Amino acid sequence: MRSINAIILAAVYAILVLVLPGLSYGPLQVRIADVLSPLPYVMGFESVIGLTLGTLIANVFSPYGIWDMIIGTLCTFTYALIDWFLGKLIGYKKWMLIVIATVNSIIVGFYIGVLLLGIIGGGGNLTYLFILLTSESFISMSIGSLILVPTIRKYYKVFK
Questions:
Q1: 138 neighbors 101 (Cβ within 8 angstroms)
Q2: Residues 1-36: pLDDT tens digits?
Q3: What is d(CA 28, CA 125) in angstroms, rounded to the nearest whole number?
Q4: CA 22 distance to own-chain centroid
Q5: 8 A C-beta contact, residue 79 and residue 104
Q6: Which whole-number Å values give the CA distances from 12 to 6, 18, 47, 54, 58, in the listed order?
Q7: 76: which residues sit within 8 A by CB, 6+ positions away?
Q8: Distance, CA of 44 to chain centre
Q9: Overall number of domains in the chain
Q10: Is 0.85 topped by the overall pTM?
Q11: Which of 48, 49, 53 is CA-nearest to residue 17?
């Protein structure tokens, strides 16, 4: 059952990115699929795999090519692993939801804003790109953390 959860999460993430490409790639993005990103906090390691695989699939179609496949996928794996680890270490705490959204957004700001768009893409001011991508990510990450995570936590045991 756990592998099915990973496959479903990967598919949903990839589909949300691919049906909304204008919002999913580049310096001006609010990747709607990122509402799923905090789920490893409550769903377990299979969601780390699912989100990472979903990101890889979605980034195959990225205008940033192989670099987004590598950097973007590593970004997702990093924050998903941290979220899962925090869930194991601390357990479910409501105050952690905003911490997770913040940490995830900072990781996106660094990997995507600084590394991918700034350094590899030559996109300009690294501080600006970090702040921009962190802020944009925080929108979907907050929705995922504050709304989706408590909802999934409430009903997820039914599906295990």
A1: yes
A2: 568 889 999 999 999 999 988 888 888 888 999 999
A3: 14
A4: 17
A5: yes
A6: 10, 10, 12, 8, 10
A7: 37, 51, 52, 54, 55
A8: 15
A9: 1
A10: yes
A11: 53
